[in-house]
């Protein structure tokens, strides 16, 4: 559970840098904003996860709390969108259906887009 000012969230995937993770307690259940977060769109979360909707509250909250890289995995269209934080808003860096996506926040982390959607 990621605890933010307005809401608490459970990103589908997230990553904290070593300095932040070193402060985690053994029985901790609520965590500070990560450096990197991924949301996999579903019918029940699509409007909260994605800025394309007028709701898009989760994406706004993530940006306002300094999450530096945000990805949205759209299983329906088999695309991955990579957003990077600029100031206090996310800017779409790329939207891929093929190729390799490399993280700007996690050194050495790269993944083939098609591999994400393979059975």
From TrEMBL:
Alphabetic keyword roster: Endonuclease, Hydrolase, Nuclease
Domain Putative restriction endonuclease: 3-110
A GO molecular-function annotation: endonuclease activity
A Pfam family this chain is assigned to: Uma2
InterPro entries reported in the protein's UniProt record: Nuclease_put_TT1808, Restrct_endonuc-II-like, Uma2
Protein's recorded name: Putative restriction endonuclease
């Amino acid at each position: 559970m990621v605890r933010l000012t307005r809401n608490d969230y459970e990103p589908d995937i997230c990553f904290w840098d070593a300095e932040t993770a070193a402060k985690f307690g053994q029985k901790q259940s609520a965590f500070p904003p990560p450096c990197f977060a991924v949301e996999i769109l579903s019918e029940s979360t699509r409007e909260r996860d994605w800025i394309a909707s007028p709701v898009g509250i989760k994406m706004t909250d993530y940006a306002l709390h300094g999450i530096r890289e945000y990805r949205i995995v759209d299983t329906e269209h088999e695309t991955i969108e990579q957003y990077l934080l600029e100031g206090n808003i996310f800017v779409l860096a790329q939207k891929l259906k093929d190729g390799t996506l490399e993280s700007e926040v996690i050194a050495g982390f790269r993944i083939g887009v098609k591999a994400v959607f393979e059975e």
